[in-house]
């Protein structure tokens, strides 16, 4: 069986403290992970605190990639989870879970390509917009009066649960025949498709204002959760194109007051 | 139901780095623990690194007690677990377990009095002798090529599993009637009894040399696991006294060549 832990990426978004970079690298090494990506970091991997905290994880730290935004960090990923101590907001209940619940799901997705856990900056965590770019959300149950974990501690607990899931899957599948990998569209392709879809859904008046954002989030979760294939992403692009054409026709025909549903029905058949 | 998490003590033995004290206090606060004991610490809770890392856990840090040895840290405890990345050595398989396996056991014991998880110093962990003072051993499954976790990360994962066990027990027992606490002899009494027993077993020639240590460890685990009552501890003291008396009789009678088994049998009835 393929070793899936190296396919599980840790993404730190705008980390502030070098010590957290080092501690993250070390604990990744402890649990068998190696793929670290830093999004627009304030702290440097060359800082003495980072190197001191990394100990045997120096190799992970030195191999860390720095990218400008979350999109670049997740570009080739088939599945991603955002971490947050807040559970209110943009997410539907089906896509939120505890670390113990979500790590087996993340690991299963790694069969199909790289996956990622995304951690926000130390002071305030990820924005709703950033959370919305991921397929789901993971929380670590903690005290309600002070639930905010240190960044590297949160990484440690996710890596720990991931390794538990991995150990279990290794024991469960030992001796089972390997299954062929299913193709899943990478994040960058899915994301382009979602943007296309958002544009189209806005143009046709489905998405608007604040409610539009949460509707689009819900759609992203719904589609993302199914791990769409490249072919399915193409199909959704086709849908978006069609909606945009329709919206354009409506605009053109508005003076004529033609019913837009007519145009939509024709193009579907 | 009584809240058991405040009865779960974190014991750090000779911690070297102040940052680890702070990070430990914070993560204890995150998961609802509050009882921190430092055994002969090299690092100070007043160090700037400790206070900076503690954030909202400053209250836990400031309430930490400093004691000279593990015995003092565990004096009132009814159950304790030593942490180690090594699983070879003095312990029998029944008393070793992963954090996920052992934390429910620790929490259940907290019904009867204070319990503790004991963490060794950063460079090398607990000595075999120190591990032997505890009732069992807990490990965190990790990479075989670099399994040694940062001290505060190990604390985080144990506290996390402890809170999981606590959440589960709160959900399981909600609505159930409270059960009266069973009396368990505190560590200091158990330990005195074990020392008495060791002396007696050595005197009667049962324990000797290297093998004697591991035999005594096995006995400690066996008896300790049953959470002996004060009455049972008295009974074991009685046994030790009797064995010593017997050994003494043997020594006295050696010139006469009396069979020692005779004396032992009589005193038992």
TrEMBL record, chains A, B:
Record localization = Cytoplasm
| Gene Ontology MF: a single term | RNA binding
Q: Broadest EC class?
A: transferase
Q: What is its main location?
A: cytoplasm
Record region (Disordered): 250-269
- InterPro entries in the record: Alpha/beta_knot_MTases, RNA_MeTrfase_TrmJ/LasT, SpoU_MeTrfase, tRNA_m1G_MTases_N
Listed A to Z, the keywords are: Cytoplasm, Methyltransferase, S-adenosyl-L-methionine, Transferase, tRNA processing
Q: Where is the composition biased (Basic and acidic residues)?
A: 251-269
Domain tRNA/rRNA methyltransferase SpoU type intervals:
9-160
Alphabetical list of CDD domains matching this protein: SpoU-like_TrmJ
Q: Which Pfam family is one of this chain's hits? A: SpoU_methylase
Entry keyword Cytoplasm: yes
**Superkingdom of the organism of origin:** Bacteria
Q: Which GO terms describe its cellular component?
A: cytosol
Provide a GO biological process annotation. Answer: tRNA nucleoside ribose methylation
The catalytic activity, as recorded, is: cytidine(32) in tRNA + S-adenosyl-L-methionine = 2'-O-methylcytidine(32) in tRNA + S-adenosyl-L-homocysteine + H(+); uridine(32) in tRNA + S-adenosyl-L-methionine = 2'-O-methyluridine(32) in tRNA + S-adenosyl-L-homocysteine + H(+)
Q: What is its EC number?
A: 2.1.1.200
Quaternary structure, per UniProt, is: Homodimer.
The entry's function note states: Catalyzes the formation of 2'O-methylated cytidine (Cm32) or 2'O-methylated uridine (Um32) at position 32 in tRNA.
Family label: Belongs to the class IV-like SAM-binding methyltransferase superfamily. RNA methyltransferase TrmH family.
Name-wise, this protein is tRNA (cytidine/uridine-2'-O-)-methyltransferase TrmJ
Which species? Gemmata massiliana
Q: What is the lineage of its organism?
A: Bacteria, Pseudomonadati, Planctomycetota, Planctomycetia, Gemmatales
